[in-house]
Specification:
Number of strands: 8
Order of helices and strands: HHHHHHHHHHHHHEEEEEHEEEHH
Shape: elongated
Largest sheet: 5 strands, mixed
Strand content: 5-15%
CATH superfamily of the largest domain: Hypothetical protein, domain 2
């Protein structure tokens, strides 16, 4: 297996020269990957579009959670042009449950630019890929290496963890300097004849063997003989990660306002958290029953009966919602809902409207018998 030739180190002072101590690493990773890789839909049939969609979906999301979404999404939008022309509401509904909805919006923007600027063909060069909305260094590397066979590195959290242990890196892998160092190390090892299998092999090692937040399975690791952390007995303490800031606590009150089999929904603003998605009316703070009824009346409804719901919580990256909920039955309204609100039938609500998973406990309450 041919190793990728080194660039002139004077052209990139942060890029370390190839280390002969790791000469066998590429071969070992590729051989292990080809025998042990998981069978995933985006691997069994490879195209630049399928790779791009899968990598966007996999950002901060487990592989098993993505698989059913991927198949459903590809059935609805089988190519770049169909995604570029997608109806926004349908797109959001198909993404419902995956979270981080800005990914879906950026994916559509990306598809539009691919159609407009590249004639509907996803580019293969790193600069062109990085110029597209929602594509960062890892995704660009993944598309270039996995779909086009370009000898470039694709470095995600799994790869950072694996390479930090292999090299016994003592620095914080979340720092730009250390991330750049480990990316350069990975780049120096990419084989010309198997860049995709090497990149995915490192990712697979991180997912199956060199595990996060628990002891790595060193006894079955194909590169254990090269691992400096294992040799030093410090594999359990690496990688080093700086302390993440604590999540901000946000108490909210969620109202399920129902008239017969219709439930009130509100569309969130186009920017910010959960931008442009549908939600149940909700307010800052933990309301008493009286405050909840006052809020219902302020929306123009006449409450008949109120029932407290089980409290719920949802974790965002930087915020934790702790939610108090009330089901409020109201009289048949005399006028349409206020601007920005709709009141669909339950079946229509569940099939057409994209409601974030933050409200999943309250969506389940919709199917419970009415009090």
């Amino acid at each position: 297996m041919a190793r990728k030739s080194r660039r002139n180190n004077e052209e990139n002072h942060d890029r370390p020269p190839f280390d002969p101590a790791f000469a066998d690493l590429s071969r070992l990773v590729v051989s292990w990957y080809r025998e042990n890789r998981r069978r995933l839909p985006w691997r069994e049939e490879v195209s630049p579009y399928r790779t791009l969609v899968s990598e966007i979906m996999l950002q901060q999301t487990r592989v098993e959670a993505v698989k059913p979404f991927f198949d459903r999404f590809l059935s609805a939008f089988p190519d770049v042009r169909s995604l570029a022309d997608a109806d926004d509401e349908r797109l959001m509904k198909l993404w419902e449950g995956l979270g981080y909805y800005s990914r879906a919006r950026n994916l559509k923007k990306c598809a539009r630019e691919v159609v407009d600027r590249f004639g509907g063909s996803i580019p293969s060069s790193i600069p062109d890929l990085l110029s597209l909305p929602g594509i960062g260094a890892y995704t660009a590397g993944a598309v270039a290496a996995f779909a086009y066979g370009k000898p470039v590195a694709a470095v995600d959290g799994n790869v950072l963890r694996v390479t930090a242990r292999i090299t016994a890196e003592p620095g914080d892998v979340l720092s730009p300097a250390v991330r750049g160092k480990l990316t350069a190390f990975t780049s120096s090892l990419v084989p010309e004849d198997a860049p995709g299998d090497f990149g995915q092999g490192l990712i697979e090692l991180g997912a199956l063997i060199c595990l996060p937040n628990r002891p790595p399975k060193c006894d079955v690791c194909p590169v254990r003989s090269l691992c400096r952390a294992r040799a030093a007995g410090c594999e359990g303490t690496l990688p080093v990660r700086g302390k993440k800031p604590e999540r901000k606590l946000d108490r909210r009150t969620v109202l399920l306002i129902r008239s017969g089999t219709r439930t009130l929904l509100h569309k969130r603003q186009a920017r910010g958290l959960l931008a442009g998605l549908w939600e149940f009316p909700n307010y800052a703070g933990g309301f008493t029953e009286k405050e909840a009824l006052d809020a219902v009346r302020a929306l123009g409804f006449d409450p008949i009966r109120l029932r407290p719901l089980e409290p719920a919580r949802h974790l965002f990256t930087h915020i934790e919602w702790q939610m108090t909920g009330y089901l409020v039955l109201v009289a048949e309204p005399d006028s349409p809902p206020p601007d920005g609100f709709v009141m669909p039938e339950t079946d229509d609500l569940l099939s057409r409207y994209a409601i974030p998973s933050a409200f999943s406990a309250f969506v389940r309450a919709l199917t419970a018998p009415l009090p």
